[in-house]
Automatic annotation (TrEMBL):
Protein name: PAP2_C domain-containing protein
Keyword Ribosomal protein: no
Alphabetically ordered keywords of this record: Lipid metabolism, Membrane, Sphingolipid metabolism, Transferase, Transmembrane, Transmembrane helix
Location of this chain's protein in the cell: Membrane
The keyword Cytoplasm is annotated on this UniProt entry: no
């Protein structure tokens, strides 16, 4: 084949070379734009996730509320798992108790105690429904109850007390062999407890060993303390109703022999202490919290993170008077 003249080859190369450079440059620009688009999508995705998790609803960040509720669910399941496990280790001979030696076993009082637990819980949920800052209350009480349930799980695993009933062998379910333990049985026990939210039917055989830290007392005391703390001052007399009911309920728990006296005392002391310490910390000014002796407790550093965006003080949670349903009730009372 004949070769092209030199001047033609030079002119063609001078024309083609810039075109090749432009094509390469355009390809590089396209690749850079694609990478920039991917980076923008990643950044926008991260931003959206960050925006969702940091959204504030009712004065509470969504991520903090989810953290507290997850903690509560895990703590509750840890209770049920512990009870399902220790049932096979618990003895069947009741221990001596000062109240048992004075008052005979009155099983009907357990139904009274359960009814009081329901009433105290109803008063708590009614307060949540009517209060304008209900999400703040939910976050605080959920964290308190989760901490108490965690303490309860540890106490159940550390020391197992036999039930205090006269006929423990009839009331308690049969125990499985320690060496040949069937984990399917334990899983079924946990699921049955979860389905009943931790409550047991007195008319049926029960899982035994749920002692040393009364769950009934925990529910009654925390409910009554919450109502007393967050109920508006206009309804101050109503605060004493769940308080008195909880004392009656605690007495019923002992004389029905559902719990020993020490179970109720421990639950009362710890529930009151944790509730009071948490809310005492919440009433400290934000600038002074890290200087407080309470901040030395590692758990209070978590509380500080939960409360960082909430204005300190009880009056700020119940500010601007009672919420609308309470105001409506006040107008009815004043009109009469």
């Amino acid at each position: 084949m004949a070769k092209l003249p030199v001047y033609l080859r030079y002119s063609m190369s001078s024309i083609i070379a810039p075109l090749i450079k432009e094509e390469r440059k355009s390809n590089v620009i396209c690749e850079e734009k694609k990478e920039e688009g991917k980076d923008e999508n990643r950044e926008s995705g991260k931003f959206v996730r960050h925006l969702i998790m940091n959204v504030t609803v009712g004065g509470v960040e969504l991520r903090k509320l989810l953290f507290v509720l997850t903690f509560l669910v895990l703590a509750a399941f840890s209770n049920w798992i512990a009870l399902a496990y220790i049932h096979d280790f618990v003895g069947r001979e009741a221990l001596p108790d000062i109240v048992f030696s004075v008052v005979p076993e009155l099983l009907w009082t357990l139904k009274v105690g359960d009814a009081i637990v329901t009433l105290c819980s109803t008063s708590f949920f009614t307060l949540l429904f009517l209060h304008k800052n209900r999400l703040i209350i939910i976050q605080r009480i959920a964290f308190i109850v989760a901490c108490l349930y965690t303490m309860r799980t540890i106490s159940l695993l550390c020391t197992q007390l036999p039930p205090g009933y006269i006929d423990n062998n009839k009331r308690c379910r049969s125990q499985s062999n320690h060496t040949g333990r069937d984990w399917h049985i334990i899983a079924w026990r946990v699921l049955s407890q979860a389905g009943k939210l931790g409550f047991q039917d007195m008319d049926d055989e029960m899982l035994c060993g749920d002692l040393l830290f009364s769950g009934h007392t925990l529910a009654m005391v925390v409910s009554s303390l919450t109502v007393a703390y967050y109920l508006p001052d206009s309804f101050r007399p109503l605060r004493y109703i769940p308080c008195m009911l909880s004392w009656v309920g605690m007495i019923c728990m002992v004389i029905s022999r559902t719990h020993y006296t020490i179970d109720v005392l421990f639950a009362y002391w710890l529930s009151t202490a944790v509730f009071s310490i948490y809310h005492a910390f919440c009433e400290i000014d934000l600038t002074s919290r890290k200087l407080s002796v309470l901040y030395r407790l590692w758990v209070m550093q978590i509380v500080g993170w939960l409360e960082i965006d909430i204005t300190p003080g009880r009056e700020n949670v119940n500010n601007k008077g009672p919420p609308r349903p309470f105001s409506f009730a006040l107008r009815i009372i004043n009109d009469n």
